[in-house]
């Protein structure tokens, strides 16, 4: 259990903590941060967003430490993508429950994650490793930005009347679809229909 794997496990541990603050109204969470007449967000949502951002930021940290210190393990290869998918899926499903995100978008995003994970597993059986593409990285960044903006009710853009969170979740969904197609097109050689 090396340092990168501990960081990854911390990310997994933060998933239910984030959901707790997002979905359960604690007494202090009933208070609202209000700015003007057009914007308010609960303290619960602010804490959940902060936890989400901290957890999401650990993704790059554990991978960098593992590669730079030669601490890459099979456990890490399993846990790291699992942690990412748990974090994003839990956040998106919670946002649907709160009425802040369209369910169909979440189904599309999570379906893509399952499909690409399955493709990666098939590639591993053939001894091939599918590296993250630039589109995959763009997908992750746009998802994190969109989820964070939705959690905090589009602050500070709500004050300006700009639907930034809505725009970002659309962009994240479209990039998610495109990156999934891109993975399958570039790695179609690992799929063997005859077997």
Automatic annotation (TrEMBL):
Its EC number is 2.7.8.5. The keyword Transmembrane helix applies. Its main location: membrane. It catalyses: a CDP-1,2-diacyl-sn-glycerol + sn-glycerol 3-phosphate = a 1,2-diacyl-sn-glycero-3-phospho-(1'-sn-glycero-3'-phosphate) + CMP + H(+). It comes from the Bacteria. It is a multi-pass membrane protein. GO terms for molecular function: CDP-diacylglycerol-glycerol-3-phosphate 3-phosphatidyltransferase activity. The keyword Transferase applies. Pathway: Lipid metabolism; Phospholipid metabolism; phosphatidylglycerol biosynthesis; phosphatidylglycerol from CDP-diacylglycerol: step 1/2. It holds the Pfam family CDP-OH_P_transf. It is found in: Membrane. Keywords: Lipid biosynthesis, Lipid metabolism, Membrane, Phospholipid biosynthesis, Phospholipid metabolism, Transferase, Transmembrane, Transmembrane helix. The chain crosses the membrane at residues 12-33, 86-110. InterPro entries: CDP-alcohol_PTase-I, CDP-OH_P_trans, CDP-OH_PTrfase_TM_dom, CDP_ALCOHOL_P_TRANSF_CS, Phosphatidylglycerol_P_synth. It is an enzyme of class 2 (transferase). This protein catalyzes the committed step to the synthesis of the acidic phospholipids. Belongs to the CDP-alcohol phosphatidyltransferase class-I family. This is CDP-diacylglycerol--glycerol-3-phosphate 3-phosphatidyltransferase. The lineage of its organism: Bacteria, Bacillati, Bacillota, Bacilli, Bacillales.
């Amino acid at each position: 259990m090396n340092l990168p794997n501990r960081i990854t496990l911390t990310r997994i541990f933060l998933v239910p903590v984030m959901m707790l603050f997002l979905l359960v109204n604690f007494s202090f969470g009933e208070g609202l941060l209000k700015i003007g007449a057009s914007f308010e967000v609960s303290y619960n949502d602010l804490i959940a967003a902060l936890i989400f951002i901290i957890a999401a930021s650990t993704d790059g940290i554990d991978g960098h430490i593992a590669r730079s210190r030669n601490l890459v393990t099979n456990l890490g290869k399993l846990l790291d993508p699992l942690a990412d998918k748990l974090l994003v899926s839990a956040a998106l499903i919670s946002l649907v429950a709160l009425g802040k995100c369209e369910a169909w978008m979440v189904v599309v995003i999570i379906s893509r994650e399952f499909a690409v994970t399955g493709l990666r597993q098939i590639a591993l059986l053939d001894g091939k490793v599918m590296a993250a593409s630039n589109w995959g990285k763009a997908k992750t960044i746009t998802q994190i930005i969109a989820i964070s903006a939705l959690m905090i009710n589009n602050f500070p853009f709500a004050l300006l009347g700009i639907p930034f969170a809505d725009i970002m979740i659309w962009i994240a969904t479209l990039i998610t679809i495109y990156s999934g197609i891109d993975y399958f097109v570039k790695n179609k050689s690992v799929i063997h229909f005859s077997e």
